[in-house]
Design brief:
The protein is α/β, with parallel strands linked by helices. The protein has 11 helices and 9 strands. The strands form 2 sheets. The chain has a 6-stranded mixed sheet with strand order 1-2-3-5-7-9, sandwiched between helices. A 3-stranded parallel sheet has the order 4-6-8. Helix 1 links the parallel strand 2 and strand 3. The chain is globular and about 65 Å long. The protein starts with 5 loop residues before the first strand and ends in a 9-residue tail after the last helix.
């Protein structure tokens, strides 16, 4: 069995990343965060990969959150060390995923607590197994969420619903996660990865450049005024309008054929 904290597999145009610490419920230690960042850099540069699926190894967890044994030592070493090693590292990982120019789909196969829930909030799309369970349990150990959970969850679920989960630490079911916008849908456990790959396939048939422009416009525009957001949208259209893919898409539509996008 591989000792890598994150497994990488390429299936045609889709990269499958698997958090690989099942004996620790795929807790996010520093090595896992660093490996995720490494792999995302590689995937961004690989023009043959057009989408990413992220899941967890084993049958119990997507990720139970930050590795408490590891980051508790950082806290003991002082706030400057904890901020550098734990908080900034975690926030950098979720921010990288949120702003990634290729669609990232979380396939949530079990527990998604703390940092595991924050990753699910940050990625572009998420499918949850019926066995998934979500929680914001950081308050149980006396800290607020540190990977962006106090900021992204209220934007997804609304202030009052987010505060209930943040202030109680109580777990909630995948159907509730779907209701409040953390995941797109809930599916039978045995169909989880197939559903994620099917969704990725419906995305990768389109121009990867158009996908990148949409992701950028939504991520950048979400927290601006409508006027600023419309300007961002216009800028992304202008960047797309000069590409070969636009002419291919228009030509294919006029000629009633399937487009052949080159990502240029």
């Amino acid at each position: 069995m591989s000792t890598s904290t994150v497994l990488f597999e390429k299936r045609s145009q889709i990269a499958l990343l698997t958090l690989n610490r099942p004996q620790k419920l795929n807790a996010l230690n520093y090595a896992t965060n660093d490996r995720l960042m490494e792999l995302l850099d590689q995937i961004e540069q690989d023009e043959t990969i057009k989408a990413v699926i992220l899941t967890g190894a084993g049958d119990r967890a997507f990720s139970a959150g930050g590795d408490i044994h590891e980051f508790s030592q950082s806290i003991k070493d002082g706030v400057d060390v904890a901020m550098r090693d734990f908080v900034r590292r975690g926030q950098a990982t979720t921010s990288r995923m949120e702003a990634f120019p290729k669609p990232i789909i979380a396939a949530v196969n079990g527990l998604a607590f703390g940092g595991g829930c924050e990753i699910t909030e940050a990625v572009h799309l998420a499918i949850a197994s019926e066995r998934a369970l979500f929680a914001k349990p950081e308050i149980n150990i006396g800290i607020p969420p540190t990977f962006g959970g106090t900021q992204r969850l209220p934007r997804l679920a609304g202030r009052k619903r987010a505060l209930e989960y943040l202030l109680t630490g109580d777990p909630f079911c995948p159907e509730r996660a779907c209701e409040v916008g953390i995941v797109n849908r809930v599916v039978p456990h045995e169909t989880l990865l197939d559903t994620a790959f099917e969704l990725a396939g419906r995305i990768t048939r389109h121009s990867p450049l158009a996908s990148a422009r949409i992701l950028h416009a939504v991520t950048r525009g979400l927290n601006t005024t409508i006027a600023e957001g419309l300007q961002i949208e216009s800028e992304q259209f202008a960047r797309m309008a000069v590409t070969r893919d636009v002419h291919e898409g228009l030509g294919a539509w006029i000629e009633r054929r399937t487009p052949r996008y080159e990502g240029r």
